[in-house]
Amino acid sequence: METRTLGTSSVQITPILMGTWQAGKRMWVGIEDKDTIAAIRAAFEAGITTIDTAEVYGEGHSERIIAEAMTGVPREQIVYATKVFANHLQHDQVLQACETSLKNLQTDYIDLYQIHWPSGAFNSAIVPIEETMGALNHLKQAGKIRAIGVSNFSLAQLEEAAQYGRIDSLQPPYSLFWRQVEKETIPYCMEQQISIIAYSPLAQGLLTGKFERGHQFDPADNRAKNKLFKGESYDRAQQALDKLRPIAERHHTTLGNLALSWLIAQPQANAIVGARNTEQAVQNAKAAEVELSPADLAEIDAIGRTVTDHFDDNPLMWEW
After folding, report:
1. DSSP 3-state assignment of 266?
2. In a domain, 214, yes or no
3. What is the pLDDT confidence band of residue 313, given thresholds at 50, 70 and 90?
4. What is the C-alpha to C-alpha distance for residues 198 and 166, in angstroms, rounded to an integer?
5. Structural domains counted in the chain
6. How does the average pLDDT of the chain come out, rounded?
7. In angstroms, rounded to a whole number, what is the distance separating the alpha carbons of residues 318 and 320?
8. Gap between the Cα atoms of 113 and 140, Å rounded
C-alpha cells in the first residue's frame, strides 16, 4: 500500500489505518484478545502499517494488545499513533501519559501523539492549550514523539493549538454519512497541510450494509447511542445504501470498501478502520485498491448527502 506524508512531518502513514478502540474492549461487546491480535497482524501483513490507539481504550489494554500483535516486527516498519486523554492535559500529566503509552507499546518513540479530546470534555479540568502544547513540544524535542495531532477539535480549537506548535493531523468523525468537518475545518487543514485522519469512516459499521432495518444494539454497545442508528436517520441511511449497492457491484467491491475509497479520495483524508477478525482486516486493506472516477465520486457524494443534509452542526455522533 502506498504511503502518504503526515502533515509536514517525516512520518509516512498508510491511507487506511488499523483502528483499535475495540481492542480495549470497554464499550464493546464480544471482543476476544486472540481475535484482535490476529486481526492487527493480518492488517499489517495486508499492507496497513499505521495503527491508531489511545491510552483510554481499555485503560492501556489496546496499546498492550498492539505490542503483543507486533512482536518480532522491526519497529521502523510500523507507525504508531496514540492519544492522551482529556483528563491528562496538564504539563506533567502529558509527560507521564506518554511514558505509560511508550511502555504499553513497548517502544521508545511514538510516531504520532494526539490530544484525544480538548480540555473540559467529559467534565475534565480546563487546561490552557499553551500548557498542553508545551509538554507535547518538549516530548517532540526529546525524540519521544515524532509528530503532534489533535482529535475532536473544532476549527477554533485547532487554530488556537496551532499558535503554540506544529499540528500535523486532525482526527475527527468523518464518513460518507457524517460530514460536519467538511464545512470549515477541512479547507483550513488543506491550507495548513494538516492531514485528516478520519475515525468511524464506516459510520461504525453502518456503511458496510450489514445492519438490517430494525436492528437493535446491546445497550452496552456504544452504537446504541449513535445518532445514525436512530429513527429517520437510520431509515435514510438504509435507503442510501440501496443506491450505493449497484455502484459497489460495478467496481467489484464491498459497500464498506466503496465508502472507504470515497473517503480517502477526499482532500487530506485518511481512514481509521477497526476489525474484529482477520477477514475484516484483510478486506479493509483492499479499499486502497478501488479506483473511483470523478463521476463515481460525485454520484457517491450526492447519495451520502441524502443522509447528512438532515443533521445539524453538532460534531458529536453519539447522544452521550
Report:
1. coil
2. no
3. confident
4. 19
5. 1
6. 95
7. 6
8. 9
CATH number at residue 181: 3.20.20.100
| DSSP-H helix ranges across the chain | 33-45, 61-69, 91-105, 129-141, 155-162, 185-192, 231-250, 255-264, 278-285, 294-308
Q: Is residue 244 part of a domain?
A: no
Q: Which of 252, 270, 189 is nearest to 1 (CA)?
A: 270
Q: How far apart are CA 120 and CA 262, in angstroms?
A: 34
The 10s digit of each residue's pLDDT in 235-258 is: 999 999 999 999 999 999 999 999
pLDDT for 138: 98
109 is catalytic: no
- Number of neighbours of residue 189 by Cβ within 10 angstroms: 23
Nearest-Å Rg of the Cα atoms of the chain is: 19
Output the pLDDT for position 222: 80
Q: Which domain holds residue 156?
A: 4-205+255-289
- Residue 164: strand, helix, or coil: coil
Residue 110 lies in a domain: yes
**How many Cβ atoms are within 10 Å of 63's Cβ, its own excluded?**
29
Pair 268, 194: CB distance under 8 Å: yes
Residue 238: inside a domain: no
Residue listed under C-alpha cell 496514540 = 82
Structure confidence by residue, pLDDT tens digits, 118-168: 999 999 999 999 999 999 999 999 999 999 999 999 999 999 999 999 999
Q: Looking at 57, 113, 174, 234, which residue is catalytic?
A: 57
pLDDT tier at 24, thresholds 50, 70, 90: confident
